[in-house]
Amino acid sequence: MRKSNSVKNTHNRGVASPPEQLLADVAFAQIEEMIITRRLPPGSMISEVQLAAELDMGRTPVREALQRLRQVGFVEMLPRRGTLVAGVDIRQQLELLEVRRPLEELVVRMAALRATQEERSNLRELAKVMAAAAERGNMEDWIRAGGVIHEAEVRATHNSMLITSMQPIHAQSRRFWYLHIGQNRAYVEGAQLHAKVLNAIAQGDGDQAAAAANGLMQFIERFTRSALDTF
């Protein structure tokens, strides 16, 4: 009888709480957003206990999320001190752009070829969302729209390896923009360049999408170098 109760209780616990890996994914996404938006600013120390309480979960998924964030360069593990939010290195951002440029071309070409009609319609709508944020000069909405756009483009490739590879690259880029963008001119120009990419993908024109992506990357590199000049 005791064995039967034990099995029943274990089963109930499994149903009541999400799988631990799912919790780690949730923790990763939420802590990543805190770092990108500077709720956890560069140079700050992270408390696993406080994060677990804020996210309403145990320390194990938080610890796993922090390990993943260390792998993408968002945090550093300091012996006997704890977890530190890493700074944003502009020169490292330029190195990242060298890697990102050819991958972005691959992404947009594959998306132009493989996107479903629903995905193409969604990409057109996302161009309008970013343009509206640019017109308002709303930094958070503009950057958030950029994140959604990049995720939608990559998912439209229907290539799981690209999806996995581009996620940390785009996250690092969003973090950089959040720290350095502050001019409405950059919002508008960036939105226009994104729209060219999105519309080319929606039309199924891989060559035009690649050319537009190259123009966007040139804009991003110019912006990054201008940020470097201010230091």
Automatic annotation (TrEMBL):
SMART domains referenced in this protein's UniProt entry, alphabetically: FCD, HTH_GNTR
GO molecular function, one term: DNA-binding transcription factor activity
CDD domains documented for this protein: WHTH_GntR
Keywords of the record: DNA-binding, Transcription, Transcription regulation
HTH gntR-type domain sequence ranges: 21-88
Pfam hit, one: FCD
Protein origin, superkingdom: Bacteria
SUPFAM superfamilies in alphabetical order: GntR ligand-binding domain-like (SSF48008), Winged helix' DNA-binding domain (SSF46785)
Cross-referenced InterPro entries: GntR_C, TF_FadR/GntR_C, Tscrpt_reg_HTH_GntR, WH-like_DNA-bd_sf, WH_DNA-bd_sf
This protein's name: GntR family transcriptional regulator
Species of origin: Paraburkholderia polaris
Organism classification: Bacteria, Pseudomonadati, Pseudomonadota, Betaproteobacteria, Burkholderiales
